[in-house]
Amino acid sequence: MSDVHTDAASGDVASAPREVTLTGTARVGRRTKDLAKRLRSGEVAFIDHRDLDRVAGESLVATGVAAVVNASEFISGRYPNSGPARLQEAGITLVDAAGPEVMERVTDGSEVTIIGGRILCAGEQVAEGEPLGPELISERMERARDSIGAELRSFAVNTLEYIDKEADLAFEPLVVPELSTDFRGRHVLVVVRGHDYKEDLRALRPYIDEHHPLLVAVDGGADALLEVNYTPDMIIGDFDSLSADAWECGAELVHHVHPDGRAPGREELAEAGKPYVEFVVEGTSEDAAMLLAYECRAELIVAVGTHATMVEFLDKGRAGMSSTFLTRLRIGPMLIDAKGVSQLYKGRVRRRDIALLVIAALVVIAAVALVSDSLQLFLRALWVDVRDFWYSLTGRFS
Description:
- By secondary structure, this protein is α/β, with parallel strands linked by helices.
- The chain is built from 17 helices and 16 strands.
- It folds into two domains: 3-144, Glucose Oxidase, domain 1 (3-Layer(bba) Sandwich); 174-344, Rossmann fold (3-Layer(aba) Sandwich), CATH 3.40.50.
- Strands 1, 2, 3, 4, 5, 6, 7, 8 and 9 form a nine-stranded mixed β-sheet that branches. It has a seven-stranded parallel β-sheet with strand order 14-13-12-11-10-15-16, sandwiched between helices.
- Helix 2 links the parallel strand 3 (44-47) and strand 4 (67-70).
- The radius of gyration is 30 Å and the shape is extended.
């Protein structure tokens, strides 16, 4: 557990900066999503993640860490990334731009103390960054929104350049591997651990329970499904972010391989020793999942947590979205977003349902009355009492 207290500088307490002192166990990792699997409540995370994205921020919040020290800038100003705001809203202490040396000078598992922006290990200062509070986050996010025009232009140019290069490749026939999962005529739910995936999955419960779609997880989407007690039928991607439970869930494994031979994740698959097939296609793993469902004659593809906006793609570290644009162009109206489906399946009680419930209850009561001697005796006695009371009234006033 961490020992946390705050000391306000002298002067106007309402506006004075607050210096936070915090002690905890250090956990060091350059890949935030891998580090999040090792973090425990009250620990101090040391990351090197420029422009911390929203999904990474939420994964850190879920661990219950006390503080996050970033060797790079939480918000560089390229675009308004919302990860730091998520951490700050959760009450997590943030130290910004502590420098690359902090990743070497802090040992994983050691005890560290944070005083303001200073990081101490064994009583010695090993690095110093800038405490990042809500005012600074708000100010930097505003600056990022004001300057996003240049990033948007670069993003659009990059997207168009790659569309020109990849258009022919995008519409070539695809070679589909032999699969045990049968997509033909089925609804398919493609789950990516992206923006709002938890809320979307909760909202889609009525749809899933009614239509029983095939559940196709893109890498960490497998754990997203397991978290809400659904088991994926298939996992596709580069397998760099699966938990042990996801590896053992029994889903069919499809390795996404690029046409130029790039096959990230092959080592993980070999180490796991699980049987898998390869699907060769250009684009992101979520594009591969949608194209596989499309080529296997799925009836409908519903996307959860997929990336569709410039900010979401920048969060993923991508300079353009050509493959996603071409994939959606190829699939057409077969693909719909989870938020649209959830609006059609909102739970609500209709008056007709209430009437049917009341009628059913009355039928049950009548049936019980017909077969229950004690209930019949009670009803006859009640009838005699009512009749005698009625006779007494009519006799009194006649």
